[in-house]
Design brief:
By secondary structure, the protein is α/β, with parallel strands linked by helices. The protein is built from 14 helices and five strands. The chain has a five-stranded parallel sheet with strand order 1-2-3-4-5.
Amino acid sequence: MLGAALAGALPRRVAGEADCVIPVPATGICYAEGLARGLGKPLVHGLEKLHRPNNRTLCFADVERRTGMIRDHMRLTGEDLRGKQVVVVDEAIFTGTTLRIVCQMLREAGAEYVLTGHSERRALFGETDETVAKRTVVALKEGLKVVMCVGETLEQRESGLTEKVLEKQLREGLKYVDADMMSAVSVAYEPVWAIGTGKTASAEQARDAIACLRGVLGGIFDAATAESTYILYGGSMNEKNAFSLLSMKGVDGGLIGGASLDAEKFISIIKAYDNTERKI
């Protein structure tokens, strides 16, 4: 039954090949052509040379399935590179009572992770803390891992409201999540003012915001849960600032956007992470 429903929502060849299917807003489609053009062979060859430890995970957003070479590389390297692919799913099927069914379809397709609360969804699709909370808990109950995005606007930061905004988004977004579910939850701090703008939070700003989030997690759950939860930084991370950002205490990884469209730059970010003292 689910297989038949899935065939109607996802391209057949993708449903059979993808390691992970993550719903994204249609606005992400514009990246597909650049992704295919900018990555291709350079990325595959670069990844082959890294010889990365098996406990590292790379997640790729292949919006229109145009990066077949990357998929081939994912299959060849096995545990060395766990590719997380993205396909576009009609926004309409992510509303109301169908959400649980869609999560089951994604899991059957091999999905492991989904994003909730991304700033584009909040800004363009009217996503609220309440809808983020509901989507998050349904995804978890259906066996998916969640990367929940939070972040403040420039106006909120300049008004001194960053910590207040982050605490509200995190508390509201996790209000239906039990402590025993948190092993399947990661948090991505993405300052809205730094996404696709070329502006980047300083290493210290990222560190302080993530420290705030970890403190809130400790208040919601306990210190052990706060320490074990992965918190990523997303917001114009590139090959020039990656090392300083990823070296900060508490920054467990990155949610990479525009820089992932250039194979050389993306490989540099991966190397920067591998060269930091914190090994996640």
